[in-house]
């Protein structure tokens, strides 16, 4: 209990620093997720629409997910140097799999009868995708986005190892200085961020499920 009191006191005494680090952390995660959506949704659609491309696309994003985070950032460091931009690229790669896979699954799970009905009223393949298949896949996409956000928040804590910012600075400093108070003080807001992201995106996911279930 005394230890937690010390952690709380440390965080209160450095509140402005923690606010700044939290904002940095959120910015890195949001940027990475935005890029992952821009790239991942089209890749998921391509995988769903073209059977020959599906195993290639899904295998590539699976491989990216399997690379340990430290190894991924070390590889990126060689090519892109130190800094926040390199961290964002790494988070982008880690966020791709759940977004690509869930977009793919969402489109494949659309009831064939609905697709056939769309074709029956003269919809083109593009109209079917835009007005029927993609809207119905949004609950799956939201589930993937939820997973991607939690992963990105967690992986971003090792950003300082390659010159990035965020809450990982306190965690890494705590490890280097063998200071448990700083380590835990950095880990707590990072965990809270992950919980908040999971909760809020879970709410959005449930709303989309109810909307398209009616």
Protein described:
This protein is mainly α. The chain has one domain (2-213): MetI-like (MetI-like fold), CATH 1.10.3720.10. It has 9 helices and no strands. The longest helix is centred in the first third of the chain and has 35 residues, at 15-49. The protein is elongated, with a radius of gyration of 20 Å. The termini are far apart. The mean pLDDT is 89.
Percent helix, as a range, is over 70%
- CATH structural fold name: MetI-like fold
Q: How many helix segments?
A: 9
Sheet having the most strands: none
Question: What's the short version?
Answer:
By secondary structure, this protein is mostly helical. It contains 9 helices and no strands. The mean pLDDT is 89.
Descriptive keywords:
mainly alpha, MetI-like fold, 9 helices, elongated, membrane
Topology:
Elements: H1 2-13, H2 15-49, H3 54-66, H4 69-80, H5 84-108, H6 112-120, H7 125-155, H8 168-176, H9 180-213
Helix pairs in contact: 1-9, 2-3, 2-5, 2-7, 2-9, 3-5, 4-5, 5-7, 6-7, 7-9, 8-9
